[in-house]
Structure formats: structure tokens, C-alpha cells
Amino acid sequence: xxxxxxxxxxxxxxxxxxxxxxxxxxxxxxxxxxxxxxxxxxxxxxxxxxxxxxxxxxxxxxxxxxxxxxxxxxxxxxxxxxxxxxxxxxxxxxxxxxxxxxxxxxxxxxxxxxxxxxxxxxxxxxxxxxxxxxxxxxxxxxxxxxxxxxxxxxxxxxxxxxxxxxxxxxxxxxxxxxxxxxxxxxxxxxxxxxxxxxxxxxxxxxxxxxxxxxxxxxxxxxxxxxxxxxxxxxxxxxxxxxxxxxxxxxxxxxxxxxxxxxxxxxxxxxxxxxxxxxxxxxxxxxxx
Length: 288
Ligand code: PDD
Prior knowledge:
single chain, alpha+beta, D-amino Acid Aminotransferase, Chain A, domain 1, D-amino Acid Aminotransferase, Chain A, domain 2, ten-stranded mixed sheet, six-stranded antiparallel sheet, 7 helices, 16 strands, globular, binds N-(5'-phosphopyridoxyl)-D-alanine
């Protein structure tokens, strides 16, 4: 049974309770992070906490804990759940004031802080030789204009992901004004003529921690890469297509809207960069 953290107390997840007046419940007025843990160690923790700071300040919510406070909380969460490979979910909302009101509550309303873990399945990048690749579909990006905030307000993402699932696909790749942004819960990479390309950071995408690490690894290992807009035509005509996230690492997409991408198999650049990713994890902890 997993142990969760809620507002200063530790308890079995199934016993954790929040008020129906919580603004996360009423308004989705909150932000979150998903942080992978390998062999009991949080991966790219500083980067995840930087993004959390960005999300909190973007919604004008004072950080309820210091940087060290977050680190201690997450370390204790992992220890109480006996380490291993996990994903940590951390959510902060604008608390549960006595009255439902769209405007912010009094500044001294305590934020709600909730954290839990889930088991993490091995990612396809860990087994490049047996990975066959996934199917994705395209969909119009119906989200708001502040996708850089990791907001718990995910209804558009949920509807888009469900559309993908209903089509037998694992992800919806989103198009805004004919330009690819990202997946419903992932960032997007294409490979064209040997160059790895991902859309530039902007308010229209979530700045993925996995995305940033992939760019870092490409630069460190002389894999040509660029941050550039990807048109719908370039997306469909890519040699390789990947989606990336903390929980799924790098997933090769081999079919898009029922058309093969490249030769319909995970490509050589994916194989190379997935290998760099796995090596990087192992360099931090050989058992990861
Ligand atoms: N989602 N874009 C969106 C819209 C996302 O929801 C995510 C991750 C990403 C990838 O970000 P990162 O590499 O930092 O995980 C990009 C998480 C995993 C989720 O909501 O569960």
C-alpha cells in the first residue's frame, strides 16, 4: 500500500482526504509535477523544482515550501515507499477557503500540498532491440495559451488523449495553426535528414524536462539538433517521430494517422539517442 503526503501528514493513499471546497477540486486552481525516481533517486530534481517554481509564480501562488523543504518531502516520500523505480506526483492548490469564489482567497489561506507515488513501468528506450514503436494521431490543439504552466486543469489534454485511445493510438500530436506543438502529455521530436528537431519553448508548450535533457545529450554527443517550428507537412514527412516525457522517456512513433513514419520502424537516430538517455541514467546510478 503506498504512503501519501497531504498537508504535513503521512498516511495510506486510500485514507487521504481533501475538502470539497479545495480550489483544486472546484476550479482546478493548482499546479503539479511528475518526477521520475530511478533506484530510489529523484531524476533531474532541480529542473523539476525550477519548473514548479515557474508554474507557482505564473499562477501567483507563493511556494508553500522552500527548495530544501521540497527536497526533504520528496526524499521522505520515496523512502516511505521503499524506493525503486517510481513516479512521484506532486500537486499544490490554492487551498480550501470557507467560500467558493473565483477571486483568490485571503493571502493567509494555506495551500494544499499533496504527493504520492506510482510504480513506473520500464520505458521503451530501455529495450531498444525489442521496441516496435507506437501509433499516434494528429488533432487540433484546443488548449489555452499558457501551456507552459503545468496546471492541473487538464480537460483539453484528457479529451485529446482519449481521442487518441479511441483511435487505437497512444498519443495525440497537436497542431495549432498548421504547426505542431507537442503531444497531449508529451513533447514532440522529429528527425529530418539526420537532424533532431523539437519545437522551441514558448507559452504554447510545456517545457519538458525530458525534452531539455535530450537536447543536452544531443549537443554533448555531436548529434545534430535544432529547436524549430515543425509544420504539419514536415511532421507527416519526418524520417522519425518521437514523443517524450518523464514517465515514458523517448517513445518512437511509427504510424501517424495510419500512415507509416519513415519505414514504419523505430529509426537509427531514436536508437542512438535512447541509448544516450539510458547511459546517462546509468552514469548517475548503475542500477537505474
Ligand atoms: N506530462 N507536455 C505535456 C503537455 C505534458 O503533460 C508532459 C508531461 C510533457 C513532458 O514533460 P516532462 O518531460 O517534463 O515529463 C510535455 C506528465 C508526465 C503527466 O502529466 O503525467
